[in-house]
Amino acid sequence: MDLEYSYQRYLASKKYIDDLSLNQRVLGALSAELNVRNTERPFKTIEIGAGVGTMIERLLEAELMPSGEYEAFDISRKNIEEAKKRIIAFAKKHDYVIENLAPYEVFLKKGSFSMTLKLYDQDAVEIIKSQEKSESTDLVIAQAVLDLLNVEEALPSIFATLKPGGLLYSSINFDGVTYFGPTIDHEFDAFIEEQYHQTMFDSKTGRNLLSRFVDSEGEILSVGSSDWVIYPPALGYDADTQYFLHYIINTVHEALIGKPKVDKQQLELWIKERHEQVDGDKLLYIAHQFDYLFKRS
Ligand SMILES: C[S@@+](CC[C@H](N)C(=O)[O-])C[C@H]1O[C@@H](n2cnc3c(N)ncnc32)[C@H](O)[C@@H]1O
Question: Model-level pTM?
């Protein structure tokens, strides 16, 4: 299958998969905390690795956010451009009053709710580090990104940017299990999984965060798994899920191509068969992940 792989389209297709997978207990705990804090003004949120802005849409859709300021960071300029387009389209569709304050700053208002959204194509960790101990932020959001970062370095800066009692909501943290089915070859399937995990910064970020949070000054308010469990529905995969699965298979391909331990021909055949399984509505895919809500002391 000839597909053009676009990271922005992948992140858009991931929104629905995440919606199905996000841990509802952790999301419920976040909702309860935000409800209590709804009167605090102005409520300040920072999102690390905002991608194309799907978390902002999700939180607005669920009416979870208190009024205030939301700073969304992503190191990719293309993601931020796409996030801006998506949020404006979203706000129009949902009847928000929209005011463009600057090229990447927009004011959204609906009823008694208002939000100033600022989009930055910058490294969030560097920015947070440079404001060390600013204690200015009520909520930090980090979805599917702590597993890409050096957590040991990033977490102290994230905690320091939070006000005392501030919250860190970190969802979709990968935790060391990838499964592709149906089985092609038991041994080679397991080998691919192991080799793929070795290409990651820390393939067990999900569980490793648990001890980091336990040892930090604060409290885990809620934790639970948020596994992606994908299987063909009765009517077959929709176009977005197909795209998502092809993208994931391509990610594995790109990660392993050229690795001396991986036989090139065997890999190519395996990848081809996995793509065919998507097109034939046969592929099964699981990724194990964790969500956390942590409150700083
Ligand atoms: C897997 S994506 C997740 C995007 C989004 N949170 C979501 O769940 O759809 C990770 C994102 O983090 C961004 N990213 C990685 N390191 C970053 C950093 N230090 N600061 C800001 N963004 C970062 C990447 O550009 C990418 O868009």
Answer: 0.97
